[in-house]
């Protein structure tokens, strides 16, 4: 039986971070991985998706170039070349991750799927491992309705798309969330016929009703999008998928597509690791409940991190959680709260979607819908720099607390949202007030001036500043 101080289950972003953090304490640590070592981000997530998005953005330039007097003409899309670059660069990113894995001593890497025998014992193949502390970092996997299994290889997820050698003619995308919007819009702009369906009206991760409505209208003007679809039947016929549905006008329609793309969420990989053999508190989805500041579960020496924790499934969050879990596992029983940063998320669609701090839904649930906070907003449709560049689509909502004037959070769809979100996240993490944010420098003309407009609107509504004016010398034209 192998004896360890700390066993880390999972060799992805969270697992690698946990291993390194625990190893810094000169512990006897091993990392256990049943599949290939490496990260979801590099293999099938954020990096290959951005490669597809980059190709789509280049293909889309011709659509607005004529408005500048620059006639590029409709591009010819070489699907094989597009996907070859996606695969080649994806493999390069994976290679960087594997280089770091290669630096881990061989005796610290255990290949195989781990399963709890009891709270201190793991079974990995024929090997039994006794560990004083354990970190669960098993990641997640795509999830979809069971009946779709009958579609065979006509059912794909994002993991499959990045291995394509050519682009199909048509797809049906289910799930207009982060993955669905990014992949669906990219495929559309690369010449693939896209129909996108959702349930319940949700678009992206947004919770502010007016921002979500803007997003729905914007994307639906580019490709078919029904976020609250009524799909009657899905079946395979030969090498196609056939869908019967009621369209946005209430008419029955039937379409044939090459693939059904399932972007219907991910499931934490905790259902096959033997949790039934230990007494541990689980949430409604069967995931171990953990303190978000220490990553400690109800079993004091067991910690959980990354996508398997079902908290915030983003790479930077997985890395932070892994470091916290690994450090606390190594220092147990001396448990310390780790650094938790301001929540920040982005959807790399066009226009981009971003969220910072507390969401509209969280604030409303915490403070009530009618009091204690106000909303400032700006439209990018007539914002100067956005209009100059013909990227003038979007709306930004900022939320501030009555009385204190503290900045609570933001939701937006618009140009450069990924960059605006970082500025706002830094302000939120520093617990700035709206007035303090307005004291920061703003250049002219830049898209960031739209943030200042929203801040001024919010400051006035909080009764902490003057009423909004249509024009001021400080702002310059079109800010």
UniProtKB/TrEMBL annotation:
Fetch the InterPro entries from UniProt. Answer: FAD/NAD-bd_sf (IPR036188), FAD/NAD-binding_dom (IPR023753), FAD/NAD-linked_Rdtase_dimer_sf (IPR016156), Mn/Fe_SOD_N_sf (IPR036324), Pyr_nuc-diS_OxRdtase (IPR001100), Pyr_nucl-diS_OxRdtase_dimer (IPR004099)
Q: Which residues form the FAD/NAD(P)-binding domain?
A: 5-322
Which sites bind NAD(+)? 175-182, 265
Q: Which residues bind FAD?
A: 50, 138-140, 307
The record's keywords, sorted A to Z, are: FAD, Flavoprotein, NAD, Nucleotide-binding, Oxidoreductase
Decide whether keyword Cell membrane is in the record: no
Q: Recall the GO molecular function terms of this protein's record.
A: dihydrolipoyl dehydrogenase (NADH) activity; flavin adenine dinucleotide binding; NAD(P)H dehydrogenase (quinone) activity
Domain of life, per UniProt, equals: Bacteria
Cofactor note text:
Binds 1 FAD per subunit.
Q: Which cofactors does this gene product need? A: FAD
**Record-annotated active site:** 444
Disulfide bonds listed in the record: 41-46
Question: What family classification does the UniProt entry report for this protein?
Answer: Belongs to the class-I pyridine nucleotide-disulfide oxidoreductase family.
Q: What is this protein called?
A: Dihydrolipoyl dehydrogenase
Can you name the source organism?
Motilimonas pumila
């Amino acid at each position: 039986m192998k004896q360890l101080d700390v066993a880390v289950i999972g060799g992805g972003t969270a697992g690698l971070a946990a291993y390194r953090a625990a190893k810094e304490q000169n512990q006897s640590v091993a990392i256990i991985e049943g599949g290939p070592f490496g990260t979801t981000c590099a293999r099938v997530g954020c990096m290959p998706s951005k490669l597809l998005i980059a190709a789509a953005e280049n293909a889309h330039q011709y659509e607005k170039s004529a408005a500048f007097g620059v006639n590029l003409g409709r591009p010819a899309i070489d699907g094989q070349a597009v996907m070859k670059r996606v695969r080649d660069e994806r493999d390069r990113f994976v290679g960087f991750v594997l280089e770091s894995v290669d630096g881990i001593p061989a005796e610290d890497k255990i290949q195989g799927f781990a399963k709890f025998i009891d709270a201190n014992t793991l079974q990995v193949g024929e090997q039994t491992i006794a560990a004083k502390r354990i970190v669960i970092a098993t990641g997640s996997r795509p999830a979809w309705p069971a009946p779709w299994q009958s579609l065979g290889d006509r059912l794909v997820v994002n993991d499959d798309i990045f291995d394509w050698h050519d682009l199909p003619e048509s797809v049906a995308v289910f799930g207009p969330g982060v993955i669905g919007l990014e992949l669906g819009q990219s495929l559309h702009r690369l010449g693939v016929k896209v129909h996108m369906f959702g349930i319940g009206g949700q678009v992206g991760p947004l919770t502010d009703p007016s921002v979500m409505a803007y997003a729905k209208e914007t994307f639906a003007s580019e490709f078919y999008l029904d976020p609250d679809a009524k799909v009657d039947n899905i079946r395979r016929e030969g090498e196609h998928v056939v869908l019967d549905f009621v369209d946005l006008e209430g008419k029955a329609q039937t379409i044939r597509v090459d693939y059904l793309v399932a972007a219907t969420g991910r499931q934490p990989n905790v259902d096959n690791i033997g949790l039934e053999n230990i007494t541990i508190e689980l949430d409604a989805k069967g995931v171990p409940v953990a303190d978000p500041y220490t990553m400690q579960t109800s079993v004091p020496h067991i910690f959980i991190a990354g996508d398997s924790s079902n908290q915030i499934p983003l790479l930077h969050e997985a890395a932070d959680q892994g470091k916290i879990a690994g450090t606390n596992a190594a220092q147990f029983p001396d448990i310390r709260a780790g650094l938790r940063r301001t929540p920040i998320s982005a959807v790399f669609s066009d226009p981009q979607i971003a969220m910072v701090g507390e969401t509209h839904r969280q604030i409303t649930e915490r403070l009530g819908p009618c009091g204690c906070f106000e909303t400032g907003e700006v439209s990018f449709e007539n914002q100067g720099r956005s209009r100059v560049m013909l990227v003038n689509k979007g709306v930004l909502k900022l939320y501030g607390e009555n009385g204190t004037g503290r900045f609570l959070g933001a939701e937006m769809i618009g140009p450069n949202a990924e960059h605006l979100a970082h500025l706002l996240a830094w302000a939120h993490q520093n617990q700035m007030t709206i007035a303090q944010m307005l004291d920061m420098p703003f250049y002219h003309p830049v898209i960031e001036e739209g943030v200042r407009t929203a801040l001024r609107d919010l400051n006035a509504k909080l009764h902490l500043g003057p009423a909004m004016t249509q024009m001021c010398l400080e702002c310059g034209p079109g800010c």
